Amino acid sequence: MTKQICIVGGGISGLCTAYHLKKKGYGVLLIEKNKNCGGNIQTEKDGDFLIEWGPNSVLRSPHLIELLDEIGLINEIANANLTSKKRYVLRGSNLQALPTGVANFIRTDFLSNQTKLKILREPFVKSKSNEKESVADFFRRRFGQEIVDYALDPFVSGIYAGNPEKLSLKYAFPRLFELEKRFGSVIKGFIGARNENKIAPKFKKFSRTLSFKHGMRTLVEKLVELLRNEIKTNTEVSGISKSENGRFQIQTNDEQTSNRIFDAVVIAAPSYAAGRLVEDFDRELAENLKQIYHPPLVVVVSAFRREDVNFDLDGFGFLVPKVEKRRILGSLWSSVIFENRAPAEFYLMTTFIGGVRNAELFDESDEILFNLAFEELNDLLGLKNKPVFQKIRRWERAIPQYNLGYEKVVDSIESFKMENPGFLFCSNFYRGVSVGDCIKSSLTTSEEVSDYLRKNF
Ligand SMILES: Cc1cc2nc3c(=O)[nH]c(=O)nc-3n(C[C@H](O)[C@H](O)[C@H](O)COP(=O)(O)OP(=O)(O)OC[C@H]3O[C@@H](n4cnc5c(N)ncnc54)[C@H](O)[C@@H]3O)c2cc1C
């Protein structure tokens, strides 16, 4: 009989895991709590505007492109415009373009001579890898405080809405941790490893940052279409228990699916939901998962008439270092990055407020947050008029923070998997938070499931 697998959660992690397992010939049932799948991926079409409330883009990688090729989405890819390569960082009262590449870092006026010297010396700084080091300590040690303040801190805000003093280097940026270990230096590591993860030449035409012509939702819709008979939405998994012969029984709020038995289970729900579902199996893991901090984040989208913006919007957007003491984390110039995000006479901007830095702002009213976004943008970009519209979306628990001590989470997941074979995880709290990480992780998880089923049944 065909082996049956239950996947709990229909975000990108769950959808991709279900897709790979179905492809391997297993029977899958993906259960999603909400009316629609997608989780954090939420694209809204409002007239001729296209708004991304969650991820705006995904980084090009071999496994991503292979997946898109396989499911027929290659022609739907939207490349980022060349101009968007420029990334601005606020310094003083000016937005300054962040240099790209080591050579440009040395030439720029953006950094002091002292920091430039530190960059030049980095390849010769002896490796002192420490598994319990924060991202900020790592960069301070190798490049100095100015790089922490003006390059690392805004970069970390852009990915995690997090605090680099608290994020664990090993878990939040495993590649940097590994490069230092292997090459003794970040710069030497990037040079030495430049041929790894190479993309096939035929896919080089795609930009490093990409989306889809109709937004990130395209990827979700395609996977949902391919799994149309295997998805049950509006259904919440409330419990999982062990059944006979190493199988699993799930409880849901729906008669059809509740008490069904599966040969394997994959949790693809956020950590706070996963914590509840593993409680009866392993209290320690449940506690560790529930304690992962997800800072709140507000997304304010604003549309301005082009003639009302005094700044030349020739970039991806800007990020704000903490030391600049502003009330926003940064803003993406969404309609500059990708085509068809706004009618030609408008700019669409996506501004982030809150995160670890200003979590308290999450509770402010819509009106206050709209004003705040406008005032900050006005101050930096010189706006002649108010936006033609603004919209808001609140993420009460946005992105899991891989903070110092995260080995507790990862170690307890690994020992849980040993104790409970056939019970697996694929979610943004496990092997990386980006959409690309989740897609890659789904490949590993589907391999783990099929290994288990092959060996045990
Ligand atoms: C505002 C924002 C901007 C971001 N920007 C980017 C970006 O530009 N690029 C990038 O790569 N990444 C970005 N990310 C991160 C990335 O989007 C997420 O980490 C990723 O989408 C998480 O996918 P997931 O499937 O693991 O989890 P989720 O998307 O959280 O999906 C989990 C699903 O599980 C369901 N669920 C929960 N409990 C149950 C239950 N008991 N039973 C059934 N279903 C359940 C939920 O309803 C949800 O649909 C961003 C995230 C946010 C919040």
Record keyword descriptors for this entry.
457 residues, FAD/NAD(P)-binding domain, Polyamine Oxidase, Chain A, domain 2, seven-stranded mixed β-sheet, five-stranded parallel β-sheet, 16 helices, 20 strands, 36% helix, binds flavin-adenine dinucleotide
Describe this structure in words.
This protein has 457 residues and is an alpha/beta fold. It folds into three domains: 4-39 and 219-292 and 402-456, FAD/NAD(P)-binding domain (3-Layer(bba) Sandwich), CATH 3.50.50; 111-192, protoporphyrinogen ix oxidase, domain 3, CATH 1.10.3110; 297-395, Alpha-Beta Complex (Polyamine Oxidase, Chain A, domain 2), CATH 3.90.660.20. It has 16 helices and 20 strands. The strands form five sheets. It has a seven-stranded mixed beta sheet. It has a five-stranded parallel beta sheet with strand order 10-2-1-14-20. It has a three-stranded antiparallel beta sheet with strand order 5-9-6. The structure holds flavin-adenine dinucleotide. Flavin-adenine dinucleotide is lined by residues 8-14, 31-34, 39-41, 54-58, 236-237, 268-270, 273, 297, 299, 395, 398-399, 427-428, 433-436, 438.
